[in-house]
Amino acid sequence: MERSLWGHLPLLVRSNSKESVEYVLQALWRTRKTGLDAADRHIIRDMLQLQNDSDLDPLLVCLRMLIRRFVYENVSKDDIHKLFPNEVLPELQRLLTLLLQKFQREWRDDLLKDQGTLPRLKAMTWDMANQDTESADPVAVINLKLQNGAQSHSGELDVKFQLAKDTLDTMLSSMYCIRDQLSNMDETHLSQETNVV
């Protein structure tokens, strides 16, 4: 983050309480796609005892950048302090660290919801075909029927593609690796459950 932006964080000290700073962070997260409306801007300006938006805007930019880095880079609890340069007051670092930790799970969940659900495989069929008339090399034509999470038939999508032998070998090799990893995860999960009992 640009060094000059960090210089605006001490404006948070003007707030009456930890809850005021919490409100600012929550409002910024809630409006991450749309930006703050006039009412929120007015409330935050009043909380921080600021006269105009030109004082508020650099602080909001700094906080948005901090929140984005924290959430999108999935910063661990132990590494939050690395987000702040030395020039940020220790009491502000502690306060922001506590609040970021408080909202980390909720914000990560929101981020996953924003990304949407991946479609599920509903059906798969395949057939053999010749790639073209000049080449006698057969290809596998794969038909997948995918269904979006909670949607009904209207959420179905048909995907059709072809694979030559070399591409199919590569894909199968990858699928075997995935299968092995899933099996290892199941074994680890089962052993953890038996250890808990």
TrEMBL record:
Species for this entry: Fagus sylvatica (Beechnut)
Q: What is the lineage of its organism?
A: Eukaryota, Viridiplantae, Streptophyta, Embryophyta, Tracheophyta
Q: What is this protein called?
A: COMM domain-containing protein
User: Any idea where the COMM domain is?
Assistant: 118-177
